[in-house]
Amino acid sequence: MAQGHTITVEQVARHVRVVHGDQVLAESDRPLLLRETGCPERYYIPAEDVRLDLLTPSSTHTVCPFKGTASYWSLPDAPDLVWAYPDPKPDVARIKDHYCFYDTDVS
Asked: Where is the signal peptide (predicted)?
């Protein structure tokens, strides 16, 4: 990690429900909470708790020097709404097979 940059990943005992419009995209009692310097807290939800059938893979990929290369998925009205790190860096290996969501109501 860069000096002063930290990432923590922890299992949290919280029910998380992700809704976009009127669709429930994910619901989990076992999310991971990722905290990263300079970024908002994000919930990463296990693949088994995500409605992958509603999502379409995107051609978008981004690279984070701390987490690795992210792949994205879209809804018809929300491009690149969801991302995951298929092969995350060792420091955040726990987020493998977990999905994270932009611009959704997480409750």
From this structure: none
Residue given tokens 């310097």 in the structure block: 37
The 8-class DSSP code of residue 85 comes to -
Domains of the chain in sequence order = 7-106 (2.170.150.40)
Q: Which residues contact 53 (CB under 8 A, 6 or more apart)?
A: none
Whether the CB-CB separation of 5 and 37 falls below 8 Å is answered with yes
What pTM, to 2 d.p., does this model score?
A: 0.92
